[in-house]
Each structure stands twice: as structure tokens, then as C-alpha cells.
């Protein structure tokens, strides 16, 4: 029995396509966890990264925090929060956000820092406010790198959101956890395939986003 | 008379400059087109004090800048920057030119002293309002690479709240003014050459029609040919728009070419000399300025004298089809004869004896080098032509390229001596002296 066989039989089994344990439900759940975690992480990482990058201060502190956050074992954090706060969304969200903030924060900071100083100097010289300089002179040029940071955060979240299954929640992790428990390898492989497909889709979405959001002047100049 | 008022002010500004008010007056006027000078007179006469046309717009009043690390970049600098003229700050690297310029729009705050803009303390108005009233051009143009050319230029009008359409049509207008083809409007900066980008930078600075333009080594990153084009363009724009321009450069030739007034700074941000370029070349205040001006300042100073007053000889000119008689008459007292075509354009020099009457063999003529335009060029050009010519004589031509006369090196040298005597300080007030850099 090879992996391909597992995959075909998993996806051709009609029972896997409906009900509360069906693929659409699990996909939607997974998507929901991922989007929520990414949204939260971006809400923290983007503003902090943009502002520190703009003023060029706090870079060392940021790197320190990011390194520390990366060193935290995701699963350990999950267990810890379950012990402290009990089951629910919190033990899933906190590890995912902790995972995603560092790449967003650090790349955003670096992206803004790396923007050529002369247009920024010109922007200040012609009387743009600091907020405008950040949003109209720095952000559009830093955008490709910032999107890169968001993309790697998103991919990490998508693959790690499987941990939700450990605390009794849904998502694609269900197939993997349940499959391992039931020795149903078809399910394990099917779940893993879905996670991989979702990660690839994420890549595609970010590529498209880059095409739409990044100015041709920046895209081709870089 | 308003103009003499300016002269007085400029006189005070030029602490170490020594020359006559009349010369200075002439100089300041020379940069303005006749039309603008007229405007200046009539406005001053009609509106009295309401609109200052020839006043001092920016006054730097014993300003010191000490950076947090203790570096004194500018030391008790006082400078009166005249309205509607190009004032150049020049000096060696690190002498505080950029710092001085950036204090004017408060990108750098002075540690001591005050900068007065049109009679008002620059700290009195909100910093961004101040900056929007001053165009700002920097070395590598500093264009926004995510914006098209037209939107780059429209930046300040947009900041001032203009509608997108109005700002864009204004931007297109400016593209034309700075010599950019309209087809470039939708391009992005990376699709432009360095020289074109610099033009966009100038257009962006001019977009909201600010009275003041601050330029920090705007042309130093482009090759000499493009730079010359940009300089000529700036002079033309200045003639048309009459901005108050503060221009930073470390290139003394650029300073002499562009400046109505030139401030030479020495390391440590102290003013070494503040004078019109012709004065600078003729009367450097000290060894530092003299050294900074370079070895050939005597020759360069000749750019300020017009070749119009030269005594041109027409006798030694003969046409290709000249008769033996004509040749013989022309040869009296001239070692060489200039042969011209039927159209009057110069062909070359020849010794009279080598000429065959009726039809000269043009292949045997000596090259005449390069002619100078009698009404337009400077003594420097005329001298250069004489030096380049194998015969040692310069050929003068009119606007159409027809020979109008010839003159020997010796005669030019005499004219130079005469011009210097007539104008010991500046270019002088009579004859060949017009204190404006000519070609
Ligand atoms: N932000 C700063 N902090 C500390 N010192 C500075 C700062 N900016 C400039 N300086 C110092 O002040 C002095 C004048 O600098 P400035 O940039 O005004 O010189 P400049 O005449 O424009 O030189 P260049 O021709 O090289 O551009 C230099 O010694 C420079 O090192
Ligand atoms: Mg500088």
C-alpha cells in the first residue's frame, strides 16, 4: 500500500465529504483558525514593525523578543495554557499567534528599514507628515518584503493549526490525530494532504496579492 | 528706488566682498529677464511695500548648528539670501552646506540663531507648512518608485488638497517646463535615466509653485554633458519663474555658472566669502578661497566679459573667388588671410602668397579651429578660439555662422587688460564688461 493509494481512497470515499467530520467542515474550521490567528498576529506585528522600522529604534529589542518567541515550543505552550486556562480557543490561538508574530514583526521592521532613504528624505522635505511618510513613501516600497513575512507566517499557521485537534477542536488536525489514534493511515495521509494543499493555496493567494497590491514601479525595480 | 535698496542689503550681506554697489546692482539684474526686471520696477513703484520683489527673502542670522555628538557643522553663519536669485553655497566636503540648507526648511533645527523667511522667524509657522512653501531637490532625485512620473510631480499639490485631476494636469504642465516628454508621464522612475529623474525631481519641487527652491547637489550624480543641460535648463527656468533658489554644490564651476551670489564656506561651517561670482574670481578674500577657486580663475573670470566690444578686423578676409587685386589689398599688414565661402562662412587661413586668385584651393587652407559668436560669447571664448587657431587669430561669426571679423591673440590680450582696468572689482560697467557668465 503506498501513499498514493491512501490518498485516492481517502478522497474517493463518499463518507469523507459530508457531515460534521466531512472535508468541507474540517477545511472551513481550519481556515477559520488560521485566519483568526493570522489576523491577530498581523494586528500586533504590522503596526509595531512599521512604527519601529520608521523611527529606526527598538530593533534590538524586537529581535530579542522574536528569538525568544521562536524558542517557545508550540505544543508545550498549548499544554501550558490548557493547564492554566482550560480547554477552548485560547490554548490554540496563543501558540499560533506566538508562532506568527515574529516573522511578521521582524520582516516588517527590516522591510521599512531597508527602504531607500532618499525618497523618505524628499518626502519629509516637501512637507509630508510622519504618518504620511510611513504610509505613502515607505509602506508601498516595503510591501513586497512585508507580504513575504505575512506569507511565511500564514504558512506556518496553516500547518500548525492542526494542534487544535489536541484540545478537542476541529480543523484538519482532526484527521491526523484521530487517524493516528485509530491506526487509520488513510485518514492521516488524507489530512496531511489537505494541509499541504491549503499551504500551497496560501502561497498562491499571496502571489496574487503581490501582483495586485504592489506597484509595478516597485515590483520591477526590485 | 527699490533696486538700490537691494544693493545696500546685499552689500551688508557680503561681509568680505569688496566692490561697488553699482556693479552688484548690475549683476543682480543680469540674471533676470528684461520682462521680469520691468515687472520688478513697476510693481515696486505701484504697490510699494506690499510685494517685495528685490528684497531679501531668507536671512540666516548668526546661526550655529551643533549636532548631538558635539560636531559643530555650522558656526555663527550670517547670510542674506536675495529674492528671485540663485544663491549658491559652495565649499569642501563636510563644511556644512547640507546642514545650512536643511536648516532653512527645518529638516535640521539650528542650535542657536534665527532664520528669517520673508521677515518672519521660520519657527513661527508649522513645519510642514513651511516645507510645502519650499521646493526641495536632492542629489539622487529621491523619487517615489511606486508612483508614476506624473504622480510623483503631483505629490505636493495633492498634499495641499488639490483634486487628482487638477494636480495631474499641473504635473503635465511642469513636465513640459522642465523638458520632459509627455510620453514619460505614465512611466515609473526606474524606467528613466538619471538625468530625466533629476528633471522629475525639479518638476516635483516646482509643482505647487513655491517661492523658494532648495537644491542639494541636485546635478552631481549625472555625467558632465547631462549636467550642463540641467544647469542651462535651471537658468532658463529661473529666468521664466524668478524663484529664490538656494543651491548647494561642491563644484566651483557650477557655483560660478549658476550663482547670482556665491557663499564659500570653509570647514567648520564658517563663511569664507559671500560675493557675486565675478567678484569672487577677481577678488578672493583669502588664500583658502583662492585655493578653492583653482588655478585658472583668471581665465575663468573672462567668462564675465563680453566679446562684443572687441575691435574686429574685416580687412584680412577674402572670398574664395577673390581677385589678385583683392588679395593683394587684404594682405597689407596681415600675415594670414581668412578665406570664406561665397556664403560668407569661414573656410580656413592661408598665407597671402599661397593664394591663387580667382579660385582658391580650399584643400590647402589651415584650419580656423572654432569661431566665436561676436554678440553672445565671452572674452574667454574669444581667447580660446585664438589659442586653438593655428594662425593665432580668432574668427568671429554672426548668428548664421558668417564671418564678421578676425582678431589676433595680441589684440584680445589688450582688450582683456582694458576690461580689467575698467573694472578692477567686477566685470565693470563699460565696454566689454557685463558681469554675467557668458559662454
Ligand atoms: N546627523 C549628524 N550628526 C552628527 N554630525 C553630523 C550630522 N550630519 C552632519 N554632520 C557633520 O556635520 C558636518 C557638516 O555636514 P554637512 O552634511 O552639512 O556637510 P556638507 O558640506 O553638506 O558636505 P558634503 O559636501 O560632503 O555633502 C560634517 O562634519 C558632518 O560629519
Ligand atoms: Mg552635503
UniProtKB/TrEMBL annotation, chain A:
Query: What highest taxon heads this organism's lineage?
Result: Bacteria
- Topology term for the membrane: Multi-pass membrane protein
Matching SUPFAM superfamilies, A to Z? Answer: MetI-like
* Keyword terms: Membrane, Transmembrane, Transmembrane helix, Transport
Q: Which residues cross the membrane?
A: 37-56, 77-101, 153-176, 188-209
Q: What cellular component terms from Gene Ontology apply here?
A: plasma membrane
Give the matching InterPro entries: ABC_transp_perm/SBD (IPR051204), MetI-like (IPR000515), MetI-like_sf (IPR035906)
Q: Which family does it belong to?
A: Belongs to the binding-protein-dependent transport system permease family.
State the name under which the record lists this protein: ABC transporter permease
**Source organism per UniProt:** Streptomyces griseoruber
Amino acid at each position: 500500500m503506498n501513499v498514493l493509494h491512501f490518498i485516492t481512497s481517502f478522497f474517493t470515499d463518499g463518507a469523507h465529504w459530508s457531515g460534521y467530520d466531512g472535508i468541507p467542515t474540517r477545511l472551513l474550521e481550519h481556515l477559520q483558525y488560521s485566519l483568526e490567528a493570522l489576523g491577530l498576529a498581523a494586528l500586533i506585528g504590522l503596526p509595531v514593525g512599521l512604527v519601529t522600522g520608521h523611527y529606526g529604534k527598538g530593533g534590538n529589542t524586537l529581535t530579542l523578543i522574536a528569538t525568544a518567541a521562536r524558542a517557545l515550543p508550540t505544543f508545550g505552550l498549548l499544554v501550558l495554557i490548557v493547564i492554566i486556562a482550560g480547554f477552548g480557543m485560547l490554548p490554540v490561538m496563543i501558540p499560533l499567534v506566538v508562532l506568527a508574530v515574529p516573522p511578521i514583526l521582524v520582516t516588517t521592521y527590516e522591510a521599512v528599514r531597508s527602504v531607500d532613504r532618499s525618497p523618505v528624505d524628499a518626502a519629509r522635505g516637501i512637507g509630508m507628515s510622519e504618518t504620511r511618510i510611513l504610509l505613502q513613501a515607505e509602506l508601498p516600497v516595503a510591501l513586497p518584503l512585508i507580504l513575504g513575512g505575512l506569507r511565511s507566517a500564514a504558512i506556518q499557521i496553516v500547518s500548525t493549526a492542526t494542534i487544535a485537534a489536541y484540545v478537542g477542536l476541529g480543523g484538519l488536525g482532526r484527521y491526523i490525530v484521530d487517524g493516528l489514534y485509530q491506526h487509520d493511515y488513510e485518514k492521516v495521509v488524507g489530512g496531511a494532504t489537505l494541509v499541504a494543499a491549503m499551504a500551497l493555496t496560501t502561497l498562491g493567494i499571496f502571489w496574487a496579492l503581490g501582483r495586485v497590491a504592489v506597484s509595478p514601479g516597485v515590483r520591477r525595480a526590485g | 528706488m527699490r533696486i538700490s535698496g537691494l544693493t545696500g542689503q546685499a552689500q551688508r550681506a557680503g561681509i568680505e566682498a569688496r566692490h561697488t554697489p553699482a556693479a552688484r546692482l548690475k549683476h543682480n539684474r543680469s540674471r533676470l529677464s528684461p520682462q521680469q526686471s520691468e515687472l520688478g520696477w513697476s510693481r515696486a513703484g505701484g504697490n510699494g511695500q506690499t510685494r517685495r520683489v528685490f528684497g531679501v527673502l531668507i536671512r540666516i542670522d548668526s546661526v550655529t548648528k551643533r549636532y548631538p555628538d558635539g560636531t559643530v557643522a555650522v558656526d555663527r553663519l550670517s547670510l542674506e539670501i536675495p529674492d528671485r536669485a540663485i544663491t549658491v553655497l559652495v565649499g569642501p566636503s563636510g563644511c556644512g552646506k547640507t546642514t545650512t540648507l536643511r536648516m532653512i526648511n527645518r529638516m535640521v533645527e539650528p542650535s542657536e540663531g534665527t532664520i528669517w523667511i520673508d521677515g518672519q522667524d521660520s519657527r513661527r509657522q508649522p513645519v510642514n507648512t513651511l516645507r510645502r512653501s519650499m521646493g526641495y531637490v536632492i542629489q539622487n532625485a529621491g523619487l517615489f518608485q511606486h508612483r508614476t512620473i506624473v504622480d510623483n510631480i503631483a505629490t505636493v499639490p495633492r498634499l495641499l488638497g488639490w483634486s487628482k485631476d487638477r494636480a495631474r494636469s499641473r504635473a503635465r504642465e511642469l513636465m513640459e517646463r522642465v523638458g520632459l516628454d509627455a510620453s514619460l508621464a505614465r512611466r515609473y522612475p526606474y524606467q528613466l535615466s538619471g538625468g530625466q529623474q533629476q528633471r522629475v525631481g525639479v518638476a516635483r519641487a516646482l509643482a505647487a509653485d513655491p517661492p523658494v527652491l532648495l537644491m542639494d547637489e541636485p546635478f552631481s550624480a549625472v555625467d558632465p554633458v547631462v549636467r550642463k543641460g540641467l544647469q542651462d535648463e535651471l537658468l532658463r527656468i529661473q529666468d521664466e519663474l524668478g524663484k529664490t533658489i538656494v543651491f548647494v554644490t561642491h563644484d566651483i564651476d557650477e557655483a560660478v555658472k549658476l550663482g547670482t551670489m556665491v557663499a564659500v564656506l570653509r570647514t567648520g561651517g564658517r563663511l569664507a566669502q559671500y560675493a557675486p561670482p565675478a567678484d569672487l574670481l577677481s577678488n578672493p578674500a583669502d588664500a583658502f578661497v583662492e585655493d578653492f577657486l583653482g588655478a585658472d580663475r583668471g581665465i575663468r573670470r573672462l567668462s564675465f566679459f563680453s566679446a562684443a566690444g572687441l575691435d574686429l578686423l574685416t580687412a584680412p578676409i577674402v572670398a574664395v573667388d577673390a581677385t589678385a587685386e583683392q588679395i593683394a589689398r587684404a594682405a597689407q599688414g596681415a600675415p594670414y588671410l581668412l578665406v570664406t565661402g561665397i556664403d560668407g562662412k569661414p573656410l580656413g587661413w592661408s598665407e597671402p602668397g599661397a593664394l591663387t586668385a580667382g579660385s582658391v584651393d580650399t584643400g590647402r587652407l589651415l584650419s580656423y579651429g572654432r569661431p566665436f559668436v561676436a554678440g553672445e560669447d565671452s572674452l574667454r571664448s574669444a581667447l580660446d578660439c585664438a589659442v586653438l587657431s593655428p594662425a593665432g587669430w580668432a574668427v568671429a561669426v554672426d548668428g548664421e555662422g558668417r564671418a564678421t571679423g578676425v582678431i589676433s591673440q595680441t589684440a584680445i590680450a589688450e582688450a582683456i587688460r582694458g576690461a580689467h582696468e575698467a573694472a578692477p572689482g567686477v566685470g565693470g560697467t563699460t565696454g566689454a564688461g557685463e558681469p554675467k557668465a557668458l559662454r
